[in-house]
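Forum > Structural Biology > Help requests

Title: Can anyone predict the 3D structure of Helix-turn-helix domain-containing protein?

Hi all, first post here. I have the sequence for Helix-turn-helix domain-containing protein but no way to get a structure on my laptop. I'd be grateful if someone could post the structure tokens.
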Amino acid sequence: MSDEFNARMVTLARESEGLTQSALAHLAGISQGHVSKIENGFEEPHDDVLEQLAKACDVPIEFFYQKEEVLGEGVVDFYHKKRLTLPVKPLKKANALANVRRLEAVRLLRTLEFDSVAPFPFCSPDESWTPEVAAQFVRATWRMPPGPLPNLIALIEATGIPVFITNLGHEKLSAISMPGVAGRHVIVLNGMLPASARRFALAHELGHLVMHNGSASDDMERDADAFASALLMPASDIRRELQGLRFRELGALKARWHVSLAALVKRASDLGLITERQYRTSFIQLSKLPGGRKNEPGEFEMEEPRLMRYLIEHYQRDLQYSREQVAKLMVLHEHKLAEIYFGEASPKLRVMEPKRHLHSVPMPPANAKLW
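Reply #1:
Sure, ran it for you. Structure tokens for Helix-turn-helix domain-containing protein below:
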């Protein structure tokens, strides 16, 4: 770790906790002007102030000395699946949370080498890829059989790309992905979403990473949605089942294809298998369901990430790290490691400096049960 204070990390820690400069100043017992000058690089805080800032943001003091780059909110750094009405404050918090998870992954992965990973499909920027062709390419690369796609998180994590699920603070922001982090991408999904919406958001972010590769375009959100539909519901496989779709058939199709009722109706319309009138009528019926379109009936079991927990357990089991040493390596408190990655409520404990070595770790199979 660098010995040089990184003012940007104060902003990152503050925003990840959803704090304003005024709120952080109050918690740390200093003026807002002092916080502003620290974040803008005009003042470097003394040790006692640094300790109060760390306590207020619930991070180790070492957090402020990380030298890794913090990705901005530009579309080339972040791909957001969001509505234009999303307020600025939750967007800033979501971006900060995604960056914090990314930094934790980078530090954990830095001293590991995978024996083998599944290939990640990239669409060549020199060729014109439609979303449908890109989705077919991904399925072919991963050797997926026709029909419903199996656990999508497991397929993505088998390529070495960590997937995170966290509360992004606003239901309108369903996911964030960051391309090319330490040779790997990172995807963060909003834990506030139901299973069907979360799975579609994951496919949408995968579409960004496969097709856009750090570039931006006016049509990228529409193309990512089209990619997600094609990946989860290939035309050649689902066409017969959506022909003349009836509303009463949607529940069984949702259980089979693991997509939302709304996504099925939209796919049937896009493929020309129902009329415009049927499309509008179906969405009116969806809005009249008890939970409306936001909380559809018939949700299936959530897909859960496993890669980060698998790697943490590799450090503990095979490399003989204690949990507090792993937390130190990832630059977070041990109680946060327990809460975020193990679903535990742990007391705050003192952390220790870990030893660092380069190790090779086998990737778990996409269908492996790791715990």
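The domain at 1-67 is CATH 1.10.260.40 (434 Repressor (Amino-terminal Domain)). The radius of gyration is 22 Å.
Shout if anything looks off.
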